[in-house]
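FAQ

Q: What does a record look like?
A: Structure on top, sequence underneath. For example:
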């Protein structure tokens, strides 16, 4: 029995986080093995290169956040490695695994009731881990798209990627709602709608990219670069302020452009109009991708697809359906609050930063900033 520490929902989302993390690793290994068995060594090499790039991106964020926090460690386990050893862990791509291991140790302590403060520490650490997993999730999915044309298990990989992203976004939403007042916490029906509209929108987007890559594999990389440049410019114009130094902020905007290639992500307050423009842009892009696929199928018919126009129309219709679910969610289930009503306000003069005090889950300033962008 889990005592006063974790609620059943916290424990459930912790298990889901770990399961999704392990599932992602397994699916990536499966895709690499499939390409190798097909003797597609160029795409196999690209896949490994992009996966390494994705890992390096996450490690950079992890290291920067340690530096922003002046390397203040929260528990005895975190204090074990020196600053030099911690840097080596990140260089060898093990920084996030150290954080994940430390989080699991805290959960173990909570479950067995040995430390009452371990719950808050575990929740605090999990906030950063979920943001890092969020970044890793979409950077890896871009790797999947760029190596899609020769993947033996493309359909299964697409389905797995879509379910993985939608499921993780639901756990990410659960983390942000930690900062809401108790009366604003979501009910199960809102969680279901949040999962559905993310699942439907992402599935339509990935399906359109998969169709395009199946007939014009040489142009998928060009499409990705051109789209990313547009979305990166959009992120720059949004005047984000998530990181604590200019170079870190440019890295964040680069990452936002990567995330927006697949799904909307609120990066500043008052983004409703820009959200509408974004979905209009993606809908037009999906129509163009499906149109090009139909054109190629008409000039070079395939026995596998007998009604390309119907297939393309279904992909576009699914995206429109996802937008409808999103409107329903934001109309009936999404809380809209002022910044001051969120928990975890910045430490005041009455509680200076140097003062020793118990760590709270809502003290994570990075997740709180994302919660401000999402709820305010």
């Amino acid at each position: 029995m889990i005592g006063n520490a974790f609620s059943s929902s916290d424990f459930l989302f912790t298990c889901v986080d770990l399961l999704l993390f392990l599932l992602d690793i397994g699916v990536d290994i499966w895709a690499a093995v499939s390409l190798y068995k097909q003797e597609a060594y160029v795409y196999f090499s690209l896949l490994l290169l992009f996966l390494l790039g994705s890992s390096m991106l996450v490690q950079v964020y992890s290291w920067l956040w340690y530096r922003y926090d002046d390397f203040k460690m929260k528990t005895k386990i975190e204090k074990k490695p020196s600053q030099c050893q911690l840097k080596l862990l990140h260089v060898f791509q093990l920084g996030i695994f150290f954080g994940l291991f430390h989080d699991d140790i805290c959960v173990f302590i909570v479950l067995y009731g040995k430390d009452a403060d371990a719950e808050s520490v575990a929740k605090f650490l999990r906030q950063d881990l979920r943001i890092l997993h969020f970044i890793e999730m979409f950077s890896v999915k871009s790797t999947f798209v760029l190596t899609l044309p020769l993947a033996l298990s493309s359909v299964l990989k697409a389905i797995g990627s879509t379910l993985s992203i939608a499921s993780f976004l639901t756990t990410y939403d659960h983390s942000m709602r930690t900062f809401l007042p108790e009366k604003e916490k979501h009910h199960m029906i809102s969680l279901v709608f949040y999962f559905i509209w993310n699942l439907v929108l992402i599935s339509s987007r990935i399906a359109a990219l998969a169709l395009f890559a199946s007939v014009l594999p040489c142009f998928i990389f060009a499409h990705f670069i051109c789209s990313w440049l547009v979305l990166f410019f959009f992120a720059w114009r949004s005047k984000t302020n998530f990181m604590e130094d200019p170079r870190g902020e440019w890295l964040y905007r680069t990452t936002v452009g990567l995330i927006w290639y697949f799904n909307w992500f609120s990066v500043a307050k008052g983004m409703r109009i820009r959200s509408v423009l974004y979905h209009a842009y993606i809908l037009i892009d999906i129509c163009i991708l499906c149109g090009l696929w139909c054109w190629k199928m008409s000039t070079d018919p395939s026995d596998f697809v007998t009604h390309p126009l119907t297939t393309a129309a279904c992909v576009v219709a699914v995206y429109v359906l996802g937008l409808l679910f999103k409107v329903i969610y934001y109309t009936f289930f999404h809380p809209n609050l002022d910044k001051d009503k969120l928990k975890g306000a910045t430490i005041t003069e009455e509680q200076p930063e140097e003062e020793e005090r118990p760590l709270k889950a809502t003290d994570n300033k990075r997740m709180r900033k994302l919660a401000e962008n999402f709820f305010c």
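Q: Is there anything notable about this one?
A: The longest helix spans residues 8-37.
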